[in-house]
Amino acid sequence: MTHELVIDASLMGSMARFINHSCDPNCVTEKWNVGSELRMGIFAAKKILKGEEVTYNYQFQSFGEIKERCMCGSKNCTGNFDGVALEGQPVTSTA
Fold this sequence. Notes:
By secondary structure, the chain is mainly beta. The chain has strands spanning 20-21, 27-34, 37-44, 55-56. The protein has a single domain (15-88), classed as Beta-clip-like (Beta Complex). A hairpin with a 2-residue loop joins strand 2 (27-34) and strand 3 (37-44). It starts with 19 loop residues before the first strand and ends in a 39-residue tail after the last strand.
């Protein structure tokens, strides 16, 4: 959210914490100021069909050298959550 503030819903949060990452998401996130509070909203970026999984791009930034591996299976999967292809190469999905 900011350089000093990150979202970590591993222990608590709304139902949105169960939304998975995708390199080809059907939702986007937006920062909103509500009063004096910074909030995140998740909005559909395209039509989501009944029964379709809701996803967004985590745009996760690692705090060390270990990157969180992405296995979303999309055609444009970068291989990790920060959107930068592993070892400079796009990952080809077989899923």
